[in-house]
Amino acid sequence: MGNNHVTVLEIDLNAIEHNLNEFKSKLNPETKVMAVVKAFGYGSSAVEIAKFLAPKVAYFAIAYLDEGIALRNAGIKTPILVLHPQKINLEQIIKFNLEPTVYSITLLKAVIEAAKSLKVQNYPIHIKFNTGLNRLGFTKKDIPEILSLLKNQNEIIVASVFSHIAASEDLNEREFTLAQINNFKEVSAQFISQLSTTPFRHMLNTSGIINYASEAQFDMVRLGLGLYGFANEEAETAKLENVITLKSVISQIQIIEKGDTVGYNRAFKASETVKAAIVPIGHADGISRQFGKGVGYVFINNKKASIIGNICMDMIMVNVTDIDCNEGDEVLIFKDQDHIEELGIRINTIPYELLTSISQRVKRSIK
Prior knowledge:
Layout: E1 8-11, H1 13-24, E2 32-36, H2 38-43, H3 46-53, E3 59-62, H4 65-73, E4 80-82, H5 90-95, E5 99-102, H6 105-117, E6 123-128, H7 143-151, E7 156-162, H8 174-192, E8 200-202, H9 206-216, E9 220-223, H10 234-237, E10 244-249, E11 252-256, E12 261-262, E13 268-269, E14 274-279, E15 297-300, E16 303-308, E17 316-319, E18 330-334, H11 337-346, H12 351-356, E19 363-366
Parallel strand pairs: 1-19, 2-3, 2-9, 3-4, 4-5, 5-6, 6-7, 7-8
Antiparallel strand pairs: 1-10, 10-18, 11-14, 12-13, 14-17, 15-16, 15-18, 16-17
């Protein structure tokens, strides 16, 4: 059964390629790119984006096992880093040729055991050091124990050593970030010097590439949000092309007389005659209820139409009193980066959350 939902998320692959090249232009030619396609490619379509990017990047990164299985089942052969593997999934991770991040002694022991039981040798793993984000990761004091566990086995091999910056987009935190970078340089150098092989190193995310490419480029960078058209600062976002457009249509136009109300809990009351368009998208499609009651807006025929009343599960109502429009006309729910950024600001969130909230029932259309 096809997905005939008229609400469509359009994904522009040419824009993704433009954005990839824009970031590559900030890097040394030999620096590798790891494309982050977790969370369905930040709400778009991980499989389609990975197929398109496979010849253009060195690695993919995903968060969890299932995301990696989906890519492998789609025929993706590129190395894939699993950022947050769980002990219970390690054998599956190895069976699907996915490469786990190892962030604790418990996990390191478990990976060696899983590799042993599957009789594999020199299986690539990635060692993560915590340098200040204080999420996952080893610390400097773990180095001797990591090394002793690595020494007496040949099941696994360290492919890379990495860390993650806590505030790469915030230049007020430059001092903290440079301390994180120096911490990583010191810890990784100390660790790598005692290995028989030389893993590559990576630390920078999208904002890191923009702000710290000269200090912390290392061998590879991890490009996530930037691929999808956002750079955490206006001037840089302006250089990127819009990848994601969320579209729907007008199902019906209603005339709301003065004094009448619209939607659940009568949340909108007309103080004059209002023309309202009903659009088939709602909170089950990922449109936050916080956009109701005039907070959010869509575009119809290049004009802003404010959302009125409460957002329903499958519908929104918008004010089109001053817009020349008809049933069946296109509605832009997310028009472009500026629109998405502005909507995020209005409900005190960030583009990441708006994009990754788009429900899987919304049809994806690749162009």
